[in-house]
């Protein structure tokens, strides 16, 4: 497929770029806002080539000045705001992101990062720049950040028009009933199911697994492991692909973390590891240790991961409550009932823990990794991966000890007594924790003050809108009897 070939041959210079675009008249470009929404446009080939040969092109800073429904934030919360007239940021084109969109007549596509127009430095809340910061740091320490992502998502036989007409009530699931790992349910919508897989490959997004998950019309797709920046790009573009294919097939997918109170939520599990310069897995134990387990391991659960991995794990556990999530909190409040972790926990091959250790003897040493099970499908993958790797590297630098025993050593009452630290279970409490003066998120090696102030301000905006909303539940409960 042309799209599949194109994604493997990013142009190395302007001459190659001109050749690649020889028969094209336009190019599609996009950047990412703080909510993980793609913001982009078509450009003429001439305009694009001009921008690619310079520092980039102007892109309105309101991209970071409004929410996902284009409602502007309060001016005092912004890095770029109405006080400066929403002046242009500099959109820097990353030629390495070249791919073609197979369902849009193979139009060329590139991602951009956002820079300050005066300093040419990345703005603190640009998602791609945020993850580049931590991957560059890892590279300076001799490691490559590797990651994979899994998405669960509901699917409905609806259109944008029908959603508006129904006001999001009485939606028809793509298939009825709870049918995880079903071989029958995909056959009811085989074109849509297959299109997601095949078009993903053509779009340069390799897939490891694609199946039904429990819940009416729920699918789960696991994206292939790779370098963290590429994984974040693929994760954000996978959502774009599924929504695009859905519109073509009369299906509306939703990556909302908890669309229904009485049904499972949708996770966005992340798998991570570090690779050394020679290509080996820095989390794996040696061949000798594989036989008996690593001497000096803190617990039985960690005997088949390296000391580096144990420090990395301790770093995540130390700071996971301080780093930003998006709006997945009602999913977490379901707790163990839906395998949604709500505490700072870890354990060997445990799907009930926040961090699942995946290591021998269950897998080959080269596949040793951590599965971070806290994020929902609504995550901004750039921020989520940035948080995980920056906290992990901080743990390595500080040689942190594990703050608690594995989940298997905990008692049910430990959560109530405070022996086990709970994760914030609301956007409001999470934002307050992140914005504390002593928050780990404020450390320059993690996100830094500028990021925390801006992103925290956007989350306060979300909380304000949520508090002002009168929900269906409130009306149904109080309308007659209050």
UniProtKB/TrEMBL annotation:
Pfam families in the cross-refs: Gln-synt_C
Domain GS catalytic: start-end pairs: 127-482
Molecular function in Gene Ontology: ATP binding; glutamine synthetase activity; kinase activity
This protein's name: Glutamine synthetase/guanido kinase
Presence of keyword Membrane: no
PROSITE patterns: GS_CATALYTIC
Domain of life: Eukaryota
InterPro entries cross-referenced by the UniProt entry: Gln_synth/guanido_kin_cat_dom, Gln_synth_cat_dom
Similarity section: Belongs to the glutamine synthetase family.
GO biological process, one term: biogenic amine metabolic process
Organism taxonomic ancestry: Eukaryota, Fungi, Dikarya, Basidiomycota, Agaricomycotina
Cited Gene3D superfamilies: Glutamine synthetase/guanido kinase, catalytic domain
Annotated organism of origin: Gloeophyllum trabeum (strain ATCC 11539 / FP-39264 / Madison 617) (Brown rot fungus)
Keywords in alphabetical order: ATP-binding, Kinase, Ligase, Nucleotide-binding, Transferase
SUPFAM superfamilies reported for this sequence: Glutamine synthetase/guanido kinase
